[in-house]
Write a structure and sequence with these properties.
7 strands, single chain, Maf protein, 200 residues, globular, binds inosinic acid, 5 helices
Length: 200
């Protein structure tokens, strides 16, 4: 059976295809179904944003749906860009990482602590709804490095790995990332929902 992953972000699409391999269900994406639903990401929490995305896509598709909302929280910037990570600066990912590095130009290395956070919500046309969260701790570098992943990966340094998230192989990112941890926590919930909605 199919599970709809409510994202239009090509980086997330690549990661979810791998992350959901352990699931006895096929991930499908809105554009593959001819769906394009723009959900405003204007809520005060990751959970509310992800819930709005999951509910709208579950209603429109009739499928069990997983949505996530995620962001980068930098301690020296009081948690920014946080919920506004995707809209922190106009342009492409590289423009946003450049804006982040510029905002942190006077922050010393030991104060450049940060974390990626991801909340996933699982919904279905007739509920119930579940959620799970994953966090990945790191440091913001002085300059970008690496070409893997997406978003802020080139400036997110992982001390335990000695490289940025963008320098990790995709399989390695999918073992340790905030999204990987949220999905790991969500897998038992997903199996429960899919068992209820699966073929009789
Ligand atoms: P949203 O979850 O679609 O609101 O987007 C979150 C934004 O946070 C993305 O556009 C990226 O800028 C950033 N982000 C989320 N997850 C990651 C990641 O795994 N690596 C790098 N940046 C990320």
């Amino acid at each position: 059976m199919d599970i709809l992953i409510a994202t239009y972000n090509p980086g997330k699409v690549r990661e979810y295809r791998e992350l959901l391999i352990p699931l006895e269900a096929t991930p499908v994406f809105p554009l593959e179904l001819g769906l394009r639903i723009d959900v405003p990401e204007d809520a005060a929490t990751y959970l509310e944003n992800a819930t709005q995305k999951a509910s709208a896509h579950a209603r429109a598709s009739g499928l069990v749906t997983l949505a996530d909302d995620s962001g980068l929280e930098v301690d020296a910037l009081c948690g920014a860009p946080g919920l506004r990570s995707a809209r922190y600066a106009p342009g492409q990912d590289a423009d946003r990482t450049a804006a982040l590095l510029a905002a942190m130009s006077d922050v010393p290395l030991e104060q450049r602590t940060a974390r990626f956070r991801c909340t996933v919500v699982i919904d279905s046309p007739d509920g119930p709804r579940y959620h799970a969260e994953g966090v990945c701790e790191g440091l913001i570098t002085l300059e970008p490095s690496g070409s893997g992943g997406f978003g802020y990966d080139p400036v997110f340094y992982l001390p335990e790995h000695g490289c940025t998230m963008a320098e990790l192989a995709p399989e390695a990112k999918n073992r340790i990332s905030h999204r990987a941890r949220a999905v790991e926590a969500a897998l038992p919930l997903l199996r429960r929902v899919l068992a209820v909605h699966g073929p009789a």
